[in-house]
Amino acid sequence: MRIRVVGIGADGPAGLSASAQRVVEAADVVLGGRRHLAMLAPSDAQLREEWPSPLRDGLPALLERHEGRTVVALASGDPLVSGIGTTLVELLGEDAVEILPAVSSVALARARMRWSSESTEVVTLVGRDPHRVARSLAPGLRLIVLSSDGGTPAEVAALLTEAGYGPSPLTVLSDLGAPEEARTSGVAATWGAERSPDLNVVAVELVASAPPTLGVLAGLPDDAFEHDGQLTKRDVRASALARLAPMPGQLLWDVGAGAGSVGVEWMRAHPTTRTIAIEERDDRAERVRRNAARLGVPGLDVVVGHAPTVLDGLEAPDAVFVGGGATEPGLIDACWAALRPGGRLVVHGVTLETESVLAERYRAHGGELTRLHVEHAAPIGSFTGWSPARAITQWAVTKDQETPS
What we know:
Layout: E1 3-8, H1 18-26, E2 29-32, H2 34-38, E3 47-50, H3 55-65, E4 71-76, H4 84-92, E5 97-100, H5 105-113, E6 120-124, E7 142-146, H6 152-162, E8 169-174, E9 182-187, E10 200-205, H7 234-244, E11 251-255, H8 261-268, E12 274-279, H9 282-294, E13 301-304, E14 319-322, H10 331-338, E15 344-349, H11 352-365, E16 368-372, E17 375-380, E18 383-388, E19 392-398
Parallel strand pairs: 1-4, 1-5, 2-3, 2-4, 6-7, 11-12, 11-14, 12-13, 14-15
Antiparallel strand pairs: 7-10, 8-9, 8-10, 15-19, 16-19, 17-18
């Protein structure tokens, strides 16, 4: 099946190019949201149908019903900016979908604010957890936030204030391109809970109330995480992540996640990285979820259960971190077998028993075997001395393309 996706602005069909208007008028079937379909002039010769709910589950049956007909889908602005175009390409393939974009809400928002593309970052909250904004917080950065609905601006303002960015100016641009287009400006800390028009984009100029402590590189402060002591500490965590080497689109298994610090930092490395955190205890699993949300990666997936049993059936990872429990029978073997070719495995241990296991695997598979010693300055009476942390044995290895499981 082939389908054309036509981007339409808030000004309706009048704002379409002549060629896009002809495409819509010639269609046997027009699909779209209720708002988009209501923009069209009545026609007895054309079937019009709203998107199913839930969308992704209902799309295959909807498209199958219209097989053999000329089908056009309407979308807001650029259909590939948090739009139906992306979903249709994923479902039908690139060759089956033609995109006729209009000006996107992102472009319109930047034009209204006079912000260059180079100076802004786009964060979409359309159908997503608003905590995603937290990943992009940095003083001086400009954000274009695509709202899910009229409640999004107030949610964003509250999150910014909680994260120490209360002084940040916010501008809500509603109904962009329509005759009723409007803008409302204020500051995050005093924004309030009043609902905005449902069609809106939020422009944010990030201003911190205090010097920030969370950078973009691995090794966030330990107190950035809620934990009960089960935490891969900052310096050791940075070493592990350097060897896990987060890459766009790749998946990490964080096995025995504890506070989830490694999995959270993996996901903060790029918007498309993903983590499955495996944690046996329910209370710690909830703590991982809280840490992920607060640090801007609410999409982190948590699986509760005992490894290696619970690993069966999970999507194959591109990297695996085992922060504890390496002596569990079959655990390292299961992780190694599941790891994709070219994937990275990093295992930490603090006991002699774990060190023996890692030395054995090092002899079998190679890689790097390292002992990490970290000391921190601490008071000794009226003086200052070095306080050593427990040494960590780290095994890091890459699975060759030809390496069998």
